[in-house]
């Protein structure tokens, strides 16, 4: 839209910048969306559907062997396990209960103006 970071507060107020960022963060074709979600490159939703259709077509024609899927920009969610703990279920529940009671992870209150 032609705004530079120096324009924030002058030509573009923080509300406009926030709205523009919200739009770009929901658009899968933007580099900002790709960077925030750790994608290698941005793609359209149509690209995602076409890649899924291509994989289904190749799978249907490959016989017994399982073909390698067309590369996606995101990391394979099935390949890695996120997190892990050596806590027992009771200890984990106690830790989560203490965090809730202390207000850890709760959203900040919305500021009021005027």
- Give the topology string: H per helix, E per strand: HHHH
* SS element count, helices: 4
Main structural class:
mainly alpha
- The end-to-end distance, rounded to whole angstroms, is 30 Å
Rg is: 22 Å
Uncertain regions spanning at least 5 consecutive residues: none
Helix fraction, binned, reads 40-55%
Shape descriptor reads flat
Strand content: under 5%
Number of strands: 0
Mean pLDDT across all residues, rounded?
A: 81
Largest beta sheet, briefly?
A: none
Q: Your description of this structure?
A:
The chain has helices at 14-26, 31-36, 45-61, 89-102. The two termini are 30 Å apart. The radius of gyration is 22 Å and the shape is flat. The longest helix is centred in the middle third of the chain and has 17 residues, at 45-61. Helices cover 44% and strands 0% of the residues. The mean pLDDT is 81. The chain is mainly alpha-helical and 114 residues long.
Task: Reconstruct the topology from this structure.
Layout: H1 14-26, H2 31-36, H3 45-61, H4 89-102
């Amino acid at each position: 839209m032609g705004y530079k970071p120096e324009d924030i507060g002058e030509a573009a107020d923080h509300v406009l910048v926030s709205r523009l960022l919200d739009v770009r963060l929901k658009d899968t074709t933007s580099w900002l969306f790709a960077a925030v979600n750790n994608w290698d490159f941005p793609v359209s939703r149509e690209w995602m559907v076409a890649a899924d259709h291509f994989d289904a077509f190749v799978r249907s024609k490959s016989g017994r062997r399982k073909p390698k899927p067309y590369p996606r920009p995101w990391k394979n969610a099935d390949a890695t396990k996120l997190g892990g703990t050596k806590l027992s279920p009771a200890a984990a529940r106690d830790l989560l209960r203490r965090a809730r009671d202390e207000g850890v992870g709760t959203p900040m209150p919305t500021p009021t103006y005027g």
